Structure formats: C-alpha cells, structure tokens
C-alpha cells in the first residue's frame, strides 16, 4: 500500500528529497459538519421540483413548462446524492506526503494538480481530531473554512483555498512531525513497510 502511494509522489520529489510520511484521505462515504446543513437543503431542493413535476405532468400544461423544472430536479439530485459520489472519487485520487522540508498534495482527477508547501515558510498549521484518531490538518489561512469543510465545497470539489491533509489517520502524529520539521529538527519517518 505505502509503495503504491510512494509511486504517486516520487515523480514530484526534488533531488535527494526523502519521504517522511505518506497518506490519503479516509476512503469511502462519510459525512462532514457542513453536510448537516446541506442534506436538509438538498432534500428540499429535490422534493420541491419533484412535487412540481408530478403536479405539472398530471395537468394539461404546455410541454415547455414540464421541461423547465427538470434542471432544478437534477441540481437537487446532485446535491443530495451526486456530490457524495464526486467526493469519494476525488479522495481516491488524492495523495499526501511530507518530506524533509515540503508538504506535497497530489490530486489525479481530470487534470493532475500538485500542491507544494515549504514547511519552514508556512506560518500557520492547525489540526482537528475525532475520537477515532482521524482528523484534518489545515495548512495556512483557512478563510471560508465552514464551507470548505476540510476540503469539500458545496459541490463536492475542493475550493481554491488553502491546502489541507483531510481525514487522515493518526492526525496528531502527523501534526507533530510537521512541528519537528518546522523547528529544524530531523524527525524519524512515520513509514512502515515502505522501501525507499
């Protein structure tokens, strides 16, 4: 597993740069704090057009009126179900790494995106941890954090804001590793089973 992650990161390493940690966001379906607002909103967005569509199709109204409501229904359906599928696919193709001086985030979606952050130059790191040890490390200014919801916008894709290690296991250990590097120390890698 770690060697497969390393294969995604290694093309972006500088000469003699060593990986100290590798990870990916939590996989599969899970809810974020913003979903507790978005789910009721999306139910309303699906139920309203559905009710209208059923009513219009039972009445003898022009076909154009019947078609007019379909886009609203499709948007509601995406907000209710589709955005979760988009988010799952995006997290499958997101890879994280920490080296001796950089943070790397590689996203292999429609087009590859690589975020590189110099740890020593970055002034702000913060982390949030759940009871099961998973959590998110926010890197840099986290303006508009609520709607980013740890890397997830209202439409299920990351907004152009500060990068983050989203929903990673043992988040506290990873955060401590970043702090050691920021202080100029040479911490041991958090890698088991990786051959470099």
Which class do the helix and strand fractions yield?
Answer: alpha+beta
Strand count, sense and closure of the main sheet? 4 strands, antiparallel
The parts where pLDDT drops under 50 for at least 5 residues are: 144-160
Q: Please name the CATH topology of the largest domain.
A: PH-domain like
Highest-level CATH class of the largest domain: Mainly Beta
Number of strands: 7
Mean pLDDT figure: 84
- Provide the gyration radius in Å: 21 Å
CATH architecture of the largest domain: Roll
Instruction: Give the N-to-C terminal Cα separation.
Output: 13 Å
What sort of overall outline do the alpha carbons produce when their principal axes are compared? elongated
Topology pattern, helix = H, strand = E: HEHHHEEEEEHEH
Residues in helix, % = 25-40%
Main-sheet strand order equals 1-2-3-4
> Which percent band covers the strand fraction?
15-25%
């Amino acid at each position: 597993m770690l060697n497969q992650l390393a294969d995604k990161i290694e093309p972006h390493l500088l000469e003699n740069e060593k990986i100290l940690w590798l990870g990916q966001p939590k996989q599969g379906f899970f809810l974020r704090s913003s979903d507790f607002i978005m789910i009721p909103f999306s139910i309303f967005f699906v139920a309203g057009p559905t009710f209208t569509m059923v009513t219009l199709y039972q009445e003898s109204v022009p076909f154009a009126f019947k078609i007019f409501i379909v886009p609203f229904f499709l948007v509601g359906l995406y907000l209710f179900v589709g955005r979760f599928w988009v988010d799952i696919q995006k997290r499958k193709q997101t890879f994280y790494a920490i080296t001796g001086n950089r943070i790397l985030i590689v996203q292999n979606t429609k087009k590859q995106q690589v975020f590189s952050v110099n740890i020593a130059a970055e002034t702000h790191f913060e982390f949030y941890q759940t009871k099961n040890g998973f959590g998110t490390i926010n890197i840099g200014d986290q303006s508009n954090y609520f709607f980013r919801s740890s890397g997830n916008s209202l439409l299920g894709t990351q907004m152009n804001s500060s990068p983050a290690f989203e929903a990673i296991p043992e988040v506290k250990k990873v955060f401590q590793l970043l702090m050691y590097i920021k202080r100029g120390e040479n911490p041991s890698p958090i890698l088991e089973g990786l051959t470099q």
